[in-house]
Design brief:
Blueprint: H1 14-21, E1 25-28, E2 33-34, E3 41-49, H2 55-61, E4 69-73, H3 85-93, E5 98-105, H4 108-112, E6 117-123, E7 135-136, E8 140-142, E9 145-147, E10 152-156, E11 159-163
Parallel strand pairs: 3-4, 4-5, 5-6
Antiparallel strand pairs: 1-11, 2-6, 3-7, 3-10, 8-9, 10-11
Subunit structure: Homotrimer.
Binding site for Mg(2+): 107
Keywords: Lyase, Magnesium, Metal-binding, Methyltransferase, Transferase
């Protein structure tokens, strides 16, 4: 597996970045868990909106990530996992910096061992549907914060900041 290209911004603390840039950045106050092996990650945003169906997550993370971060709005559902270890391994192999999921993952111990940033609300061993329902590269709103494809996102154990 190939690790995502190292981005110098990956080691920037979100608290320091907010102190520096202030209202240029939106802060997501929803308490995501840090579940990947990479604690600090950042990059240009790609987006998916889906609900308890991870086919688009799987197919997107199987494409070249170029150090980007995939933000998935699963509607906050913890009913099924939107990413497991095999999809996360694909993300690493394809050069994604990280994944933020407004929903659940599974295989959290295996994912914690990967060089991938992962933020999610929690975990559930239950598989999701695989029908491809959802939308790719659309504007999302999570916790009142607008997340646009192409914007920069920064994540660390303190939280998530997004370019306005």
């Amino acid at each position: 597996m190939t690790a995502p290209a190292q981005n110098p911004a990956n080691n920037i603390a979100t608290a320091d970045l907010y102190d520096e840039r202030g209202d240029e950045l939106a802060s997501v106050s929803l308490q995501f868990q840090s579940l990947g092996g990479r604690s600090h990650f950042s990059g240009a945003v790609r987006t998916i909106r889906c609900f308890q169906d991870n086919a688009l997550v799987k197919s997107t993370l199987a494409t070249p990530g170029n150090g980007n971060v995939l933000v998935v709005d699963g509607g906050g559902s913890l009913g099924t996992a939107l990413m497991g270890d095999m999809i996360a391994e694909s993300a690493v192999a394809n050069g994604w910096a990280g994944v933020v999921i407004n929903g659940a993952i599974r295989d959290r111990e295996a994912i914690a061992a990967l060089d991938l940033g992962v933020k999610a609300l929690g975990s559930n061993p239950r598989k999701s549907a695989k029908e491809g329902a959802g939308e790719v590269d659309v504007e999302l709103e999570i916790d009142g914060v607008t997340i646009r494809p192409g914007a920069t996102i920064w994540c660390d154990p303190d939280g998530i900041l997004v370019e306005r």
